[in-house]
Design brief:
This protein is α+β, with helices and mostly antiparallel strands and about 180 residues long. It has one domain. It is built from four helices and eight strands; from the N terminus they run ααβββαβαββββ. It has helices at about 1-15, 20-35, 90-105, 135; strands at about 40-45, 60-70, 75-80, 110-120, 140-145, 155-165, 170, 175-180. The strands form two sheets. It has a six-stranded mixed sheet, sandwiched between helices. The protein is globular.
Amino acid sequence: MEQLISQFAEKVAAGEVEIYNEFSLQHELGIYLRCAIQNKKIQFERNVSFFGLEKIKYVKREIDISVFSNAESPDAAIELKYPRNGQHPEQMFSFCKDVQFMEQLKSSGFKETYVVIFADDRLFYEGSQSGIYSFYRGGSDLSGVITKPTGKKDAEVVIMGSYPVRWHTVVGALKYTVIKAQ
């Protein structure tokens, strides 16, 4: 799957595929995967209950892209982000929540789970490396208890694995990273 995502990014870099927000990313990547993966269903916004999972046990309910032959043995889940409106620490916290969700799905029987982030705002991958920024700007592996960095700071996510966030240049300021949940 990581190779397919890399090939998709190459298509974006070559101008063969245009992405401009999270919705376009979801649909263009889904179309690309449908063409590249034979004999599998590629579906959007599937509720975890479709796979026989109890919604209450998960930090999120809907899977951006699901890859499967049958609901009893799902192949992959992919969460996508393409932040467009700044809100850097809040969006980074949302990325963390997606990683926690993918870890939950992995432990519930999905063979592979991923968080894929495309960003053309340099502040997602460059700048200060303190606090939550350290995970996305090269300072620290994404791991452990992460507290919401703004507002009341009354929410937290727990990431069981340890994930380096490595950004790959697509074109210009556009970069992407793939986090494969353990």
